[in-house]
Amino acid sequence: MMYRILIAFVLIQIGALAQSLNPSKVYFSDDQKIAAKVDSILNTLDASQRVGQLIMPAVGRYGTTADTIEMLTRAQMIGGVLLLNGTKEEFKDWTTKFNSLNKDLKSLPFLYSADAEPSLVNRKMKGSTPVKKAIEIQTLDEVTETTQTISEDLNEVGVNYNFAPVVDVSKNGTVGYRGFGQNPENIIPFSKEFIRVTQENNIIATAKHFPGHGLVSGDTHKALQVIDGELLELKNYPPLIRDSVLSIMIAHIAVKNNPEFSTNGYPATTSRKIVTELLRDSLGFQGLIVTDAMNMGGVVKVDHCYTRAIEAGCDILLMPVNSFHAHKEILEKYESDQNFANEVNESVKRIIRMKIALGLLD
């Protein structure tokens, strides 16, 4: 009898531990102790350090150099790093190096992100375990297996933020092969499973590209693309938000001929109507909102694009053309505009909360 009780106790403890490893349980908790801890950490940061938490440059091929990341880290001008292209060994070396540096500086630890989509991970992280591309995955079991394999590789190299899954439909040639939209009926269940497994591996999952990139014909890497009329892919997001996806990425896509959500010729990343009024307020998303890369053709020519993205409601600026310039632009507005400063502080609190949820801040 005592043996059975002991086994039951152990199983309960294991179950509790497994549940605690899912950062969504902590991030979306209403525990006031967590809120107090967030405020306490925020109060240790000066204005420059707070602004730095919003900036996430990339290291690797097509990104910046590790030496530049080190300079930004020493200046406490960034809050995370995208590991863009490299070998598995390079990824591990980068996270180890920057973790050590942050520890010496007594800085907040980084969010380390990667484009570890099934269709990209083996190209983006050379030496990673081979997996099927998203369009080749046919069953839920295959989604589970693929996601677990990717997550194990990410945990091994220290990546805690995956910019996946792609929840766009498959018609767009740039993003279509990267998601589960080959069969539209699979988008929601397959994406939910990818998110569940990712987050149970203590990694942030990211639904992208909001409000929908699959039904536009062009490539936002090259130029601004446009949704003409109804937001037909918007319906993919509420089920994922209800299932506690921790992050959503905003696309550099304008909306026209839509009286409610027109972006007036600007990308959604700089539109408060899309980011705050639609995603935050209407859909009720409380996780991290990250921009698509800020060096892409769809946004790079917009004046003051960094401050405009923060004003729109984005929390993290991904891959600014120049992180030093981005920091300077945001800090100047932070110190001169109290409403803007309040927006920044709320974003920083969400980032700190996420770092607590991941177990990065004891």
Write a structural description.
The protein has 362 residues and is α/β, with parallel strands linked by helices. It has one domain: Glycoside hydrolase, family 3, N-terminal domain (TIM Barrel), CATH 3.20.20. The protein is built from 14 helices and 12 strands. The strands form 3 sheets. Strands 2, 3, 4, 5, 6, 7, 9 and 11 form an 8-stranded parallel sheet that branches. Strands 1-12 form a two-stranded parallel ribbon. Strands 8-10 form a two-stranded parallel sheet. The chain is globular and about 50 Å long.
**Count of domains:** 1
Our estimate of the beta-strand percent is 5-15%
User: So what's the CATH class?
Assistant: Alpha Beta
Helix content: 40-55%
Tell me the distance between the termini.
Answer: 38 Å
Rg on CA atoms, Å: 20 Å
Unreliable residue stretches: 1-20
Q: Quick check: average pLDDT?
A: 91
By secondary-structure content and strand pairing, the structural class works out as alpha/beta
Order of helices and strands: HHHHEEHEHEHEHEHEEHEEHEHEHH
> Largest sheet, if any?
8 strands, parallel
Helix count, per DSSP?
A: 14
- Number of DSSP E strands: 12
Per the CATH scheme, the topology name is TIM Barrel
Morphology: globular
CATH-assigned homologous superfamily: Glycoside hydrolase, family 3, N-terminal domain
Q: What would CATH call the architecture?
A: Alpha-Beta Barrel
